[in-house]
Amino acid sequence: MKKLLLATAALALSAGMASAETIRLGTEGAYEPWNYINDKGEVDGFERELGDELCKRTELTCEWVTNEWDSIIPNLVSGNYDAIIAGMSITAERAEVIDFTTNYTPPDPSAYLAMTPDVDVESAVISAQTSTIQASFVAEHGWTLVEFATPEETIAAVRNGEADAVLADKSYLAPFAAEEDDLVLLEREEQIGGGVGMGFRKSDTELKAKFDAAIQSMKDDGTLNALIAKWEVASTF
Amino acid sequence: MFNFCTDPDTLPKLEWFACYLTTGKHMGFYFSFGTVLLLLAITAPAALLFGFGGASAARARFLPLRWFGKAYISIVRGVPDIAFFLFFVIALDQGFEWMRHKVKCPDWDQPIRQGNDFVVCAQAKLPLGTAPQWVHETYGFSLAVLTFAIVFGAFSANVIYGAMRAVPKAQIETAEAYGMSRRQTFWRILVPQMWVFALPGLSNLWMVLIKATPLLFLLGVEDIVYWARNLGGTANPRFTDYPHADWRMWYFLALLVFYLLFTKVSELVLDRIMRRLSHGQDTAAGEAQRRAAGGPP
Question: What is the pLDDT of residues B187-240, one digit of tens each?
Fold first, then answer.
């Protein structure tokens, strides 16, 4: 009887351990609707729902961690968390340092938000968040660029006249244009980036493969498209 | 928090604010004040200890120890805080993990450095990948304390080093004439008397330390400035029950008041300490105290 009890206890313990394989997901928490901190103080948004669903499909327990955008890649590489899920576009430059999963949103145009619809972006001052594809895009074209650490500040810069327009993902800017009377989206859009994917350490190939499969399964059964439509983050597949 | 908070749109101003200011997000903000105060409470004595150690090493008679002390002071003082925080903490963390890896997984055959990645076996991870969230947070916090202590320790080492040299030579000579050993002179004469010279410099450092806490977020510790920025930013009705415009100004105003109050209290306390330390000292302040007490001119 005693042996039986012990055996069941051991079994329960090992079963508990098997299901408790935890991975940590790093996000920024300041980029609505992709990821943000809700009123309760928890990570919320499109990527929260997506990440939780992916973790269910890969049978992993996931913890959410917020990290500043600037240091989000160094902290992944050094092992502070196991994956980046923070609206990060897949680019060749980043892919040299980390591995991306297959994209979970299609490549979407970036948009400009300005005070007036007649801004000529090529001669204007453009604000963008540091180390984003938009910032490198403006820099590559040799236009005038001012960079800020958070997306919120890039918009504040347009409001107070420091910049003429902000270049960012359209899904981030659209709610501002809809909500505020003084801000409009420009007609011009830029096709940059290869869609958004999760980032993993290059050595974590097994983990990445698991998430690749989970994303693919969500693409196949249409749940991913439904999520994208719900949060209005991108066009659907 | 309150029962009437279920539908914030319909509430009058006062109740709306009562609900708004007690959301979970705001609780995180209030909690971060505690984090910052705790950090200061641990870091200040730790940095003082590092400083004292560094200064003692820098004036040691044993040459390698003296080199070590001087190198610590000049290298750490010369590196920008933000670079130190980005580089050193990661290096420190990897150093710990490397040591644990060597001990715990001796038969690991893959290289630890794979391109940009730093790969150690799962048992060597610090904290363990399976550890609950609070362990990760505490670990990050401890790394932050250690890094702050090392950085501010170097600055205070320089201050204390200078203060040790400022103690009047006559005091040391008298101690030697009484037959005290080097160690006795150091602990009984030099150390008690140097604080009065060190305090102005140390109080400066304390003030700088109070305001350096936003560096915490580089390490993933959420401090008050992070929350103020996050909470003050434009809140779009799509993502919150409490939409508002860009209120960062008000949040930063609150931080301003907090910092001003905090520095004011610090100043009062430091003034008191200075008065005590000056007592009986051969300095202008000590002299003034002696005369005020009715001593001969």
Answer: 999 999 999 999 999 999 999 998 887 777 777 677 888 888 888 888 877 788
The reported pTM is: 0.76
Three-state SS for A86? coil
* pLDDT reported for residue A14: 43
Q: What is the dihedral of CA A137, A139, A142, A143, to 10 degrees?
A: 80
pLDDT at position B124 over 80: no
Please answer yes or no on whether B238 and A203 come within 8 Å at the CB atom. Answer: no
B84: nearest Cα among B158, B39, B145, B147: B147
Q: What is the mean pLDDT of residues A174-197?
A: 87
Query: Measured between CB atoms, does B239 come within 8 Å of chain A?
Result: yes
Average pLDDT over residues B128-136: 74
Comparing CA positions, the residue from A81, A150, A201 lying closest to residue B125 is: A81
* Rounded distance between C-alpha atoms, residue A204 and residue B69, angstroms: 41
In A, minimum Cα distance to B86 occurs at A71
Domains of chain A plus CATH, in order, are: 2-106+195-231 (3.40.190.10), 109-191 (3.40.190.10)
CA dist., res. A62 & res. A64, Å (int): 7
Mean pLDDT over the full length of chain A: 86
Q: Is A155 on the interface with B (CB under 8 A)?
A: yes
CATH 2.30.30.90 fits B20-236+248-288, yes or no: no
B273 exposure class (CB count in 10 Å sphere: 0-12, 13-18, 19+): middle
A217 and chain B in contact, CB less than 8 A: no
Contact predicate A70/A83, CB 8 Å: no
